[in-house]
Batch of 3 targets.
Target 1
Amino acid sequence: MHPHLAQTQKKSLLDDQPTLKKLQFNKKRNEEQDHTGLIDDAASRFCYQDCKDEYWNPEEFSLLYGTPLWQQASPAQRLILNQLYWVAYFSQVVSAEIATIYLNQVAAAGLYTHEDFRLVCDTLDLESRQERAHIDAFKTISEDVEWQLFGERLFTYPMRSLYEQTMVFADTGPARDFWRKLQIRFFSLLSSSNAFLASQYLLVRGLRTLNGKLIQHRLSRHYSEHPQQESAPIPSAISYYHFMDESYHFNTSKIIGHDIPRSLEVPTRFETWMINRGVRGCQQDHFHFSATLKGIFWYEPALFPTLYKLFRSPQFGMEEREARQMLQRCFAEENDAIHRAYELHQIASRSYQAYVESIDYLSADNREMKLMSGNSILAYLKRNISALRRL
């Protein structure tokens, strides 16, 4: 900018050289190690028959791992449950990344209202392009697997907008869905012209993906530690490529969410209220824990019809009464899977607290994750028992 043309803003990102250098380095490394081409190529070569006899994840990352179903499953059934974990987990990732693509652009619009934020906006554009490749690979493989195994969808779904529930199996209803859509539209309208709210979308984005970062690191090791990577299952390779891309995305979230506000005006009371609503919304979405899919915050009763269909499928061959009894044993009685899921949920809550500890404009309830950490195994069992009676 010409030196004698005055800025209309009092602060500039250019004045915060440490943050600027972190952004530059993160974008440069993401461009250099961009895995889009590898993901596209791997997805195009996927053939279920080539890897249907192999685990795609570490064994503990199998659907219903540790439940009575897992304990009595045959080796062939355990193999399917391991592969279905990949299908179900990354179907949830697809939903989250559809929302990310849209909200990245909203945030870029809001931040671009300030001088000197092109670097941030270009970074978000790069990440949105990568997200499209991730979504395409996950859908291509997951839909093919479900078609081969069941001839219908169980955990996958057609493409949809972020105005649908981001959590695939959620505790919701028509009134809640309507209110959620209204909130998203209101936030999008405001943050597209408000740099602070735009930056704080990235704070919430980082919070929402923090647990995923921990889980996906463990999933990626099935490929990174494979003795013969060239012959490893393609879904395992894609788990690794995705984790590598998302590592840079998480860095972006943390830099923009935590550091960029220093280059903006002090938030108003209304802006502070808005971001506190966003963090509380994350706590609500991540309140539940799932013994079905470890590391995902699905509302278990919403899964029961799908699991009933899975138990009745030719792969598991249960009669109606047996399938209902299995749901009872897995979700209405304490077992190892429930305890593992709860423990992981508590770890997530503590990591969220550490992530937002330095954000002084968040309320005490949000910094301490009081809503999210208020769940319990007893409450989980009560909800499931009540839901199974109505099934």
Target 2
Amino acid sequence: MLEAIRSRSQGWIAKVILVLITVPFALFGVDSYLRNAGSKATVAEVNGNAISVQEFNKSLQDARTQQKDDPNFIQNPEVRRSILDKMITQRLLQSEVKRGGYLVTDEQLSNLIVTMPEFQGKDGTFSQDAYDKLLAANGMTPRGFEAMMRRDLLVQQLRDGIVSTAFTPDALVDVALRAKHQLREVSVATLQSDSFSDLAKVDPADVKAYYDKHQDEFRRPEQVRMQFLVLSVNNLILTTTVTDDEIKDFYQQNANKYQGDESRRASHILIAFGSQKDAASKAAAKKKALEVLAEVKKSPGKFAELAKKYSQDPGSADKGGDLGFSKRGDGMVKPFEDALFAMSPGSVSDLVETEFGYHIIKLSEVKGTAQTYDQVRNQIRGELMSQKALSKFADVAEAFSNTVYEQSASLEPAAKANHLEVQTSGWLSRDDVASFFKNNDKLATLVFSDEVLKNKRNTEAVEIAPNTLAAARVVESRPPSIKPFDEVKADIEAALKKQQAAKLALQKGEKSLEILKQGGSVSDLSWSSPLSVERSNAQSISTSVVLKAFQMDTSKLPAYAGSVALDGSYVLIKVSAVEDGVKSMNAEDKKATIARYNGALGSEYFLAYVKSLRNRAKITINNSLLGSKDTN
């Protein structure tokens, strides 16, 4: 089977990208079949087995290919060492596989390859074409791929043998399950730090001392005050006009858009032009149609009878002209459709001329609702104004950009030409400017450039959002400095007061906790309603409180503990009951849990095994080549 696959897969450079096509248990994916090629220099030796520079570079390149977001990450020394560590581990495991006499037959390997999802055709069976194309796309030969798969399967046999020895005693499983699914009835009482604010006192001398000691906290970056202009489609909309005729034309041309679920039942009488369709035949048809219309107008209740008598439409005449229900866009010729959807229920039209002849239409019934012209008039006006403004924006934007650049000593010319107002900002840092202009770093960089900052020139016009341009100029600037004490005094005082309030909350909380632990009570605490929670289900209680609650000694109930919240408040925690949650688990849940524990334990066994191999092995590493950015 393998030879049959190979015979149809020839002629590619052997290069593997394992992330796409490897078995789920493949561990490290190193192409050792290239290890003897290229440079004789070695990055490392494992029990005398060399890892060449070429092999190491190959693994680096594979890693770079897989990490498309940041291809330069392999220059990180830690990443390079991690890749080499994986190669060393693989060498050790391959030696153990060879020493242990592990075997993967051709039949086992071929059975695996033909069942891999990557190589299945549309019919769900192995596709030689898919196999060839995927190997070719990843620069791989069939023999190289098979060697890699065989190598990984051999290592997997070794790993499975170690993992299978993992066994978790029932007693240990029960302890773990009881811990995991235990329920604790928890309630909390929170001493909000804010409630101690009135008691917090801050000495003015402490405020000044804090300022003097923490100057870096009050360092102000370089700042500017700037003038700016913003040109957008919205500016143009305000000066754009739309006529009623344009709105009506748009409504008629897009009638389907506004029809909703409306459908109309029509009947008609057709007086056809005949086969000639010349002026004479049209005149004769019109004369006849006018005569029929007069009869219909005289006796509208006899419309069906007159349709059977006069209509020349073979499809509807026998049905009294009935055409059934129709919506806009259902295939009616436009003059007929326009006339029908302009009529009121029960009314009869005048003559309607189409390519087929003259129609007399009766609207019998209307179902559903459509949006009338009056209902959507303002909406259409807005759409047309936006369309006009968008089509005009490109030309206006180019002129705006040219004016800002060519008359760079002021924004006024561009403002006047585009009916804009020059606006002025407050003091802004570079980050503030970027944020001010919708996180536009380009414009912020221009504002703080020498050309703009020192020479007082306009920036170029920059697109800060779709169909939105902005330009700016610096009015005033100031260098980095320390904020004056008077400017930050109030903030420092508030911060110190908050710290003092948190300290008072902590003192009150710890005192209350001690009383509760000694069996006493604290009258001014407000406890929440008790909730039964698990470690993995905190419900409405914060995760940090639940974590603390499950760390508490519950040999004596109720049990109490305290915790400081992020905002400085003090949280008292009470556990009033403990319940065994394992009894609610069914046999399948327990079986799955045991499997997870055994799997985790087996993985630890294997890691310990690999560590022991490394400890016993003689490993030398050429650090000068490992750290080099180009080891070729």
Target 3
Amino acid sequence: MIDFWLAAGLLLLIALSFLLIPVLRGRRAQREEDRTALNVALYQERVAELQVQQDEGVLNAAQLDTGRAEAARELLADTEGVEKPRESRLGKPLPFLAAFLVPVLGVALYLHYGASDKVELTREFSQPPVSMADMTQRLERAAAAQPDSAEGLYFLGRAYMAQDRSADAAKVFERTVALAGRQPELLGQWAQAQYFADNKQWSPKVQALTDEALKLDPKEVTSLGLLGIAAFEGQRYQEAIDYWNRLLAQLPPADNSRIALQGGIDRAAEKLKESGGTVAQKAVMNVRVDLSAEAKAKALPTDSVFIFARAVSGPPAPLAAKRVTVAELPITVELGDADAMMPQLKLSNFPEVQLVARISRAGVPTAGEWIGRSQPLASSTTALQQLTIDSPDK
């Protein structure tokens, strides 16, 4: 901040110079004006002396004219080069008053409207935090300085969760959603914070938030993990297994959290067996999708391809789905319970399914240009299925 104030002070000095230099020039002009007035007075006195000498007979008329001419030449020589003073309507006190008010007013306006706090925060964030508490304090100051920054509030909420301040985090995530909109990830974070703020008591509010998040994005990881935790705490072990399996399917193979998540799934399975239940077998189907020659000639590489399984006798909604592009074909994908759009609509819940692959240039899964369908299959089928997109989608 010292560098900033030094630069600001230098700029103020430059601004003051534009006010004070004209004042100093005015004083110089005043001195020139006073000297001119003195020279005129001396000229008038000399002319009067010459007139007295002529009246007394000391000088004749010719000598009087000569004396007057000489006095006039001296006056002209003394006043030569003197600029005509410029009149100012501002008056003398006003420039000095302005010179005083400019820096005072400038500092006052900057402190009110300026961004000195943001400059200081930027300098702080350029240095690594010494602790989690230090980082949280910085984020709190950033949120106070920029209350309309959804990104700053989001990171503050995450910091609160890391410090087990779930009630504060819930309030911050609620503000974040109000600013950034009801995005699935933000709704999931808000639901999680609210759940822990309520001492792990499931509430209609948390249920509504997770439902909304998964409706917008069935693969929203925070909501899936939270629903699994709530189901486990409520001794609904099969639900916990299902939710965590869906979450496990979204994590990259190298993600370190996969080990902990699999441990939770195994523990839920043990609890389920101890209570006399049996773990439902997961249904998994492997499908290789390709294009017919006619479809390949007319499809674009960027066209979307939706691959899904739906119940032969049941709701029309897909039981499991994947999305790729024409450029990726041929491709082999895995459709299973982990890809279920809703917990109650899983492959293992229906005895027969049909595999479908649709090309949609508009990116709409319900309508497109080309389609391929399989014959009805048992959901327990494990053999690799071949599916060719070969028919116009009508």
